Please model this.
Amino acid sequence: MINSNVALYTATVFSILSFFIFWTQALASQPHILLLLVDDLGWSDVGYHGSQIKTPNVDRLAREGVILENYYVQQYCTPTRGSLMTGRYPIHTGLQHRAILSLTPFGLPLEFSILPEKLKDVGYRTHLVGKWHLGYYTSVSTPTYRGFDSFFGFYNYGHDHFDHTHGGFLDLFRGEKVARGYNGQYTTHLYVQEVEKIVKEHDSSKPLFLYMAFENVHDPIQAPKKYLDKYNFIKDKDRGTYAAMMDVVDEAIGNITEVFKEKGLWNDTLVIFSSDNGGDPFYRGFNYPLRGYKRTLWEGGVKACGFVYGQMLKRKGVISRDLIHVTDWYPTLVNLAGGAIDSKPMPVDGFDVWETISSGAPSPRKELLHNIDFPEKRSGLLLTYDTWYSGAAIRVGDMKLLLHVPNATWYQVPEEGGIAPDMDEIWDQKTNIVELALYNVSADPSERYDVSPKYPNIVRHLKDRIHEYWKTAVPPGIVPEDLMALAVAMKNKAWAPWRDTCNAK
Model:
């Protein structure tokens, strides 16, 4: 009996020690994750793509890491952010379109477990600094209810970079409370100060997930004077201001890099850099030689600047041309952190692309649904410049099919002699619908040569794939405006969740 008890005790101790060793090793192997998302960054607007905008910090990280030259996001900010957080295509979350106004109760469905929640499950400390734009209809839709330990930023699609108002009301929050007292301070500078505080106070024994969601270079086009002066050589004044805004982003990334190094975290940090969609030439973001821009499914709207940096990469200083999509970050990062992928309420659409990025293995992704967003007839939905539907597009291998998409053209950057379009010009293009077009985007990345007459079998196959996806789509989440949002904003002089509280402080 004594021997049996000793054996049982020994086995129990061994099991506990084994679990402790396993858990310790797992924690030791978890990288810190720094996710840098730049708002409305154009393909043409980083130094490593030949831009005259000065981005030395971005360029250095890109060239010392893995540049993703076949990397895609969604055509709008909200769909991209939803796909980033869930690993699902917008048709599977209801985020086919984007949140247009503060009055729209539009956001991420609560039934999805999102990236920060999955990382918290395996010990990460999680922080969001910057833009949320995934709903605040009720408090439980906001970042600190969705897996973030802290939040300093704003809810809507954009706000004034100096007074932090959106539509006349303050939109700046610390956690769940309105953040007042920052008027006159440039938003990105506030964000860097917040990041520095988070990193300096971080417990280094814990893995860190820091999501830095810049407001720059989203309109309104504003920058402090010292950055504007660097771009006096650009004759288009608004383009010069846009360049200054990107200069601010690059400086911010340099400062964030330094605080990670000072804290001793840098060598164990994985950096992901991405735009949320293509640039908007009306607001002076350019994508040339790509066709199209933000809001469209042409390459200029969905092909994004992106790279990965980190000492844990098995290869560095290379360009990857493997197909990668923003939905792939969710499974890649959760797996890398040792977490579990949540397949409810539906399986993820993303792939784990770590070995593709790190080692150069072939991408598991051979097909990419860009979006399905056909016009709907629903009462209360208004057709405006921003709410025009984007149609559908899919890529399989080298071939990309577009169906019922608003037309778009090419815009060269003003520094190279290009002229920015006015609103009427873009509107005219968007009301000129291209019913069907097929491009070999590997051979023709600028989408100049429609080869649909030449390849009817490919057209038929890709149309079939779109229809298969369409069968799985959930209804779009965009709904008529909710005037209660305005009532609460007027009462509090600030935007806030409006369906469960009327007393934001």
User: Anything to note?
Assistant: Residues 15-27 have pLDDT under 50 and may be disordered. The domain at 32-366+475-492 is CATH 3.40.720.10 (Alkaline Phosphatase, subunit A). The two ends are 66 Å apart (CA to CA). The first strand starts at residue 32 and ends at 38.
